[in-house]
TrEMBL record:
It comes from the Bacteria. This is peptide-methionine (R)-S-oxide reductase. Residues 1-20 are annotated as: Disordered. Its EC number is 1.8.4.12. PROSITE patterns: MSRB (PS51790). One of its GO terms (molecular function) is peptide-methionine (R)-S-oxide reductase activity. InterPro entries: Met_Sox_Rdtase_MsrB, Met_Sox_Rdtase_MsrB_dom, Mss4-like_sf. It catalyses: L-methionyl-[protein] + [thioredoxin]-disulfide + H2O = L-methionyl-(R)-S-oxide-[protein] + [thioredoxin]-dithiol. The gene is msrB. The keyword Cell inner membrane does not apply. Coiled coil: none annotated. It comes from Rhodococcus sovatensis. Pfam families: SelR. Keywords: Oxidoreductase.
Amino acid sequence: MSSATDKNPAPAVQHTDAEWREKLTPEEFAVLREAGTERPFVGEYTDTKTDGVYECRACGAELFRSTEKFESHCGWPSFFDPADSDAVILNEDTSLGMRRVEVICKNCHSHLGHVFEGEGYPTPTDQRYCINSISLVLKPAE
């Protein structure tokens, strides 16, 4: 995966590509392990308002909570902060001729999406964690 660099600690959950391919669907593998992006406005959680916790689809680590999710109308689920500031790793991403900040799961180094700042959303952090639905599993609150 493009984001596993020397500056990041080794992930707690590690599998070979073959093992990841057994665990994930081809679409999940393309996003989570190959840093792909799902099409906008098609993801399962884009407009979800269910209370709960969003976990990494690859390893089950808690990443985001519904209390930090907001409507950004960008086509992907958006959060203004991770559930735990140590839950994700932020890496510079210069692919596609742009400078962005990639968001990966700290636990397994799977690609989740990107984070953007200074877009003027009325959130406490002025950040938009733009996350692929396919990277997440929502565990509804009981």
